[in-house]
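User: I'm preparing a small set of examples for a lab meeting where we compare how different chains pack in three dimensions. I only have the primary sequence for this one, and I'd like the structure in token form so I can line it up with the others. Please keep the answer compact; I'll paste it straight into my notes.
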Amino acid sequence: MLSERRLEVLRAIVQDYVGTEEPVGSKALTERHRLGVSPATVRNDMAVLEEEGFIAQPHTSAGRIPTDKGYRLFVDRLAGVKPLSSAERRAIQSFLDGAVDLDDVVGRTVRLLAQLTRQVAVVQYPSLTRSTVRHVELLALAPARLMLVLITDTGRVEQRMIDCPAPFGETSLADLRARLNARVVGRRFSDVPQLVQDLADSFDPEDRGTVSTVLSTLLETLVEETEERLVIGGTANLTRFGHDFPLTIRPVLEALEEHVVLLKLLGEAKESGGMGMTVRIGHENAHEGLNSTSVVAVGYGSGDEAVAKLGVVGPTRMDYPGTMGAVRAVARYVGQILAES
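Assistant: Understood. Below is the structure token output for the 341-residue chain.
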């Protein structure tokens, strides 16, 4: 275990390196921070930190920079979440309050996160597997053609066209709509198959074919939509950090283009618990293209359960307390909007 003093030296190195982009020397540390010890002691502490792999010396410089291991200790032991100012919180609220539907909420959230953190923002759409049914609407488009509209508690709307095996009257349609909603509204998607399995049997024989077709379309919609969607914004922000990426930025951009990779990253964040924040640093990211980046992600949703994740991807040399604060604040506001929608 490192002593408190050496932890303070590490904190000072991380803060200076993030702020100045320059490797940090012992002289600069003692001048800029009240460490309460001599430069010789700081040099000794830095030697221990380097020996234990928390800092490293870039070959061109006399100073030191944090390693992935150093950033990890900084995040785990030293970095609190920096609270946003009241002006920043008001800006978040007014920007997100103007959203008209779920697509708009997600789009605005991505732009906001990218602006606040000046990094790449990633927002996952609310997952249907963790959603509940708010309403099922059935509309007659022609005597034997219907439209099914599924609305979730998170404001997600899915539409499907249904060609019926026989004409279906308005009275039968109203009856099916009422009975279907009575069974599924407010229930988890995973419960719906069980809840509707015997519904067709309660209709007249001539209507059962159409009812079965409607139910199978509903169940297909639930299954199809388990593949997740996400939106990315602020990729151009990475160009500000060109020298933070060894050789080239291309592997990072290629990884960001693969939504499967990002969903896996957010999925790993999800496994570490509901609404909790996850920070993955450098080589902790399994995808090789993201080894020079850090990912800060958190769940959002109403109540205690996350319906999806949002976060940012940036260089390992990032302002962790500020980024974590921004990501958490935005997630809270998005959760409130979904709860009120």
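A couple of notes for your slides: Residues 320-340 form the longest helix (21 residues). The beta strands are 55-56, 65-66, 120-124, 133-142, 145-152, 157-163, 230-233, 277-281, 293-300, 308-315.

User: Perfect, thanks.
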